[in-house]
Write a structure and sequence with these properties.
With 344 residues, the chain is an alpha+beta fold. The chain folds into 4 domains: 61 residues, no CATH class; 66 residues, no CATH class; 116 residues, Band 7 domain (Tetrahydropterin Synthase, Chain A); 42 residues. Helix content is 46%, strand content 17%. The protein contains 9 helices and 9 strands. Strands 6, 7, 8 and 9 form a 4-stranded antiparallel sheet that branches. A 3-stranded antiparallel sheet has the order 3-2-5, with no helix packed on it. A two-stranded antiparallel sheet has the order 1-4. α5 packs across α7. The radius of gyration is 56 Å and the shape is rod-shaped.
Length: 344
């Protein structure tokens, strides 16, 4: 029995509402009124309204504050269980890895699928997409965008020329633990390492090679060198490739370079024509020499017949373009000439 119940049982039942008058029950003298001396409310016992409120609370709670405490305990337990279920169960996608930190220290990696850990804040799980390809553009807007003027990424070639080079690097995460905790700025490190490898590769080739013929070799060399450096830093990333987007001379000398390029192309065109003509002449000479060797072989077998045949062929070529007069036998050794007529 609650304290209120014992109090109600030990004290007499209070009057209801207007029992004894609108000011409640008095000391038993019904003749006294509030305006009379000694009248007014009775200082003993609760009022009728308080008694009604107390009885309603007792009926509604069915037992008092003990039940309220039990409901609160179940509510708190439900919230704790829900928090554990939400922070201790993790769904990791097929392209993801879940990195677990326990009180700020690395504690493991969750593989794709359903994984479990201690609830937060004991364990914190960070999901990383390891198959996503990241692209970093290294150009005039990138870090270390050249030592020249704004808008250029200038590099020095092996023949001491300067080119404006714009390129990009593609990479993805290989080891989530190393990627998160070995480097403070992995993306910035990848950018700087790739730029260093690119400058090293450009310094080994000429300007002409860097602009055109050896682009693919330079890209492969830079990707390999950058991967070696990042492995040494334990960056936990994989360089998927390097692509040169632009390789031009500086803008200040672009016009002069175009003129030089045009002159080089013209000279190269003349050289190609000369080589083609030399090839034709050589082939013709070789054909004539081969034909002469065949004629000589026949001449060695029968010199007289071959000599006569060569004579006839030569005369055909000589007389083919001249006027000819054919005289048949018998041949008159002279032509008759009529005597000149003297004038009379």
């Amino acid at each position: 029995m609650t304290r209120e119940g014992r109090t109600a049982a030990s004290s007499p039942t209070p009057p209801l509402l207007n029992e004894g008058g609108p000011w409640g029950g008095g000391s038993g003298d019904g003749n006294k009124r509030p305006w009379q001396p000694g009248g007014g409310r009775s200082p003993v016992g609760p009022s009728a309204l308080d008694a009604l409120i107390r009885r309603g609370r007792a009926r509604f709670n069915g037992g008092g504050p003990g039940l309220e405490a039990g409901v609160w305990r179940w509510a708190v337990l439900g919230v704790v269980l829900l928090w554990i279920a939400l922070t201790a169960t993790h769904t990791v996608g097929p392209q993801q890895r879940g990195v677990i930190t326990r009180f700020g220290r690395y504690a493991g990696t969750l593989q794709p699928g359903l994984g479990f850990s201690f609830p937060a804040p004991i364990d914190i799980v960070r999901k990383l997409d390891v198959d996503n390809i990241h692209v970093i553009d290294i150009d005039s807007g990138g870090a270390g965008g050249g030592s020249g003027g704004a808008g250029q990424n200038l590099m020095l070639t092996g023949d001491e020329n300067i080119i404006d080079l714009q390129y990009s690097v593609r990479w993805n995460i290989r080891d989530p633990e190393l990627y998160l905790y070995e480097l403070s700025d992995p993306e910035g490190t990848i950018r700087e390492v790739t730029e260093s490898a690119m400058r090293e590769a450009i310094a080994r080739v000429t300007m002409t090679q860097a602009i055109g013929p050896q682009r693919s070799q330079i890209e492969a060399r830079v990707a390999q060198r950058a991967q070696e450096l990042l492995d040494g830093y334990r960056a936990g990333v994989v360089i998927q490739g390097v692509a040169i987007k632009q390789a031009d001379p500086p803008s200040e000398v672009m016009d002069a370079f175009k003129e030089v390029s045009a002159a080089q192309q013209t000279a190269q065109s003349y050289l190609n024509q000369a080589r083609a003509y030399a090839t034709q002449v050589t082939a013709r000479a070789e054909g004539e020499a081969s034909a002469f060797d065949k004629v000589y072989a026949q001449y060695a077998l029968s010199p007289e017949v071959t000599r006569r045949r060569m004579y006839y062929e030569t005369m055909e070529k000589v007389l083919a373009k001249t006027d000819k007069t054919i005289v048949e036998s018998p041949v008159t050794p002279y032509l008759p000439v009529a005597p000149a007529q003297r004038p009379k």
